[in-house]
Amino acid sequence: MTAPASSRKWSIFLGVLLIIAGLLAVAAPWFAGIAASIFFGWLILLAGIAHLIYAWSERHTGAILWQILIGIVYILAALWMLMMPIAGVVALTLVLAVYIAFEGIFELALFFSLFRRMPGSAWFLIDGLVSLLLAALIFFHWPASSLWAVGTLVGVSLLFSGIARFTFPMRPRTLPALAP
């Protein structure tokens, strides 16, 4: 099965745009972090509105009240992030450090409990250790790490997404048949 030529061109175009955006984000991580904070602020605002709308579909008073309260908390958090994006970046950086630390812990637990004897399992160990190291680097230098952490990681993510989109159309045009 082949992809249409126009689809390949759009994939290459999107890949180039993502690579450029990723390089700009890595070059100016502070601005990319603020942009990410504003983006997440808008997402949280939309989620808060969705909770308020969903509250009207609930039939029980307790469920309605909880949905309204959750919606209000989301909206307040979103407004705070949108009105104070620098503080939002600082908060996102701390959340990011905690997330990466937990991911590292879970990767190490997975390695030691399941995959230690399997071929290629060392990558789980390396992933866990690198994640813990990165989390420690962000956490122990927080809030100063807010200047680079979110923007750099967003930039690296955009860069790799762009590379994937750019190289995808370069693959063989037909997929090999799978053996039964």
Keywords:
6 helices; mainly alpha; 180 residues
Order of helices and strands: HHHHHH
Instruction: Give the uncertain stretches in residue-range form.
Output: none
Fraction of residues in β-strands: under 5%
Radius of gyration: 21 Å
**Portion of residues in helices?**
over 70%
Structural class: mainly alpha
Q: How many helices does DSSP assign?
A: 6
Shape: globular
Mean pLDDT over the full residue set: 84
Number of strands: 0
- Main sheet properties: none
Number of domains: 1
Distance between the termini: 18 Å
Kindly describe this structure.
By secondary structure, the chain is mostly helical. The chain has one domain (9-165). The protein is built from six helices and no strands. The chain has helices spanning 5-27, 29-55, 61-83, 85-115, 122-140, 149-167. Helix 1 (5-27) packs antiparallel against helix 6 (149-167) and helix 2 (29-55) runs antiparallel to helix 3. The chain is globular. 23% of the residues are buried.
Can you describe this structure in just a few lines?
The chain is mostly helical and 180 residues long. The chain contains six helices and no strands. The protein is globular and about 55 Å long.
Topology diagram in text:
Layout: H1 5-27, H2 29-55, H3 61-83, H4 85-115, H5 122-140, H6 149-167
Helix pairs in contact: 1-2, 1-6, 2-3, 2-4, 2-6, 3-4, 4-5
